[in-house]
Amino acid sequence: MEAVPHSQAEQVASSASSASVLASDGNRTEAGAEAGGEGERILAKEEKILDLTSFQLHDLTDVDLPSFLEELDLTANRLTSIDPRISNLSHLQKLSFEQNLLADSALTEFNQFTTLKGLKELVLRDNKLLKIPGLSTFVELLLLDVSFNKVSSMNGLSDVSSSLTELYLSNNEIEKIVEMEHLTNLRVLELGSNKIRVMERLDQLKELQQLWLGRNRIQSVNLCGLTGLLKISVQNNRLTSMAAFQDCVNLTELYLSHNHISVMEGLSTLQNLRVLDLSSNKITEISNLEELIRLEDLWLNDNSISSLDDIEMKLAGCKNSLTTIYLERNPCALDPKYMRTMRAILPKLQQLDSHLLLH
Q1: What is the spatial distance between Cα 158 and Cα 261, in angstroms, rounded to a whole number?
Q2: Phi first, then psi: what are they for 34, rounded to 5°?
Q3: Tens digit of each residue's pLDDT (9 = 90 or more) over 20-60
Q4: How far from 86 is each of 57, 90, 284, CA to CA, in Å?
Q5: What's the rounded Cα separation, in Å, for the pair 350 and 359?
Q6: Could you identify which of 33, 49, 288, 354 might form a hypothetical disulfide with 71, taking C-beta atoms 3.0 to 4.6 angstroms apart as the criterion?
Q7: What is the three-class DSSP state of 300?
């Protein structure tokens, strides 16, 4: 951290001093409200937020934690334990410990902070956790982020409230999808960069809109009847077919780059698709785009598409919607007429490979 005129202790003390003043005003506000006094002051939203990001704190000893706080951000510090005074923050809705040094032992008593039952967002991203902590107390939790840890199993999720709408578990060491059945309100599920081989036990997640499974070891797709999905990523896996996505008729974004797909298929029903990424596969021919009348971004770079023959016909369905197309590092992109041809057949084209086009 760059040197500053004041010491770390003075910086924290300054923040704590400000918080102390707020606490005093906050107490008067509550008392004034009860008595109907003229001195009542309503706290502004920003006064209920304490942001201590990048203070490099080892503990919160010198920090005042006013009881009216609604958001506490402790991102990028050196915390190895959770200050027990946080249990007194009964109004807290958002709590972030992102990028600290918390191990499993630091959270053994966290589930006993029953006064935090109204907590809506909990971020434990980028710590030293080996498992999902007990969180049954937090019955109103909407967002949970335990990404970038060393979690090897999803065991423990069964205790997480069914109110959850966003779950982030990327960059861990998870091998199997388990204990998801009760999370029927989930809308976003991020499981990228794990060791998952099979898509399973997702069939109860009827509200799911976004599913991120990039950088795993998945060989085949099983969407478990999740036809309401809007965005799916299965990039950097071991897929050889994309046909299984044809039932996801609401899809707007589909990311399948860096797989082993050789044929563009299962696309005729995806008429809401706006982004299609099939880069770095084994595709030899552009096909099955006739019904994609809303497609705006098409990524096909780093494949084996050999020729521009019939390219206008192959892109006819999306010619009036495409604004971006990537075909670089395909044999067809070496054609001397490549850029001129693409600009001629796609009237709304704004970007061709790395080239921004001026009209």
Answers
A1: 35
A2: -70, -35
A3: 333 333 332 333 333 344 445 688 888 899 999 999 999 99
A4: 15, 9, 58
A5: 8
A6: 49
A7: coil
* Tokens encoding 115: 């006064």
Contact yes or no for 143/120 (Cβ under 8 A): yes
What 3 state SS string does 12-38 have?
HHHHHHHHHHHHHHHHHHHHHHHHCCC
- Cα–chain-centroid distance for residue 171? 12
Q: Is residue 304 exposed (0-12), middle (13-18) or buried (19+ Cβ within 10 Å)?
A: middle
Quote the CA–CA distance of 73 and 316 in Å, as a whole number. Answer: 50
**Residue indicated by tokens 């029903």:** 269
**What is the value of pTM for the model shown?**
0.88
- What is the DSSP code (8-state) at residue 358? P
Cβ pair 100, 128 in contact under 8 A? no
CA-CA distance, 332 to 325, in Å (whole number)? 13
Instruction: Look up residue 242 and give its two tokens.
Output: 């994309």
CB 244 within 8 A of CB 266: yes
- Phi and psi at 167, nearest 5°, equal -135, 125
Supply 315's token pair.
């892109």
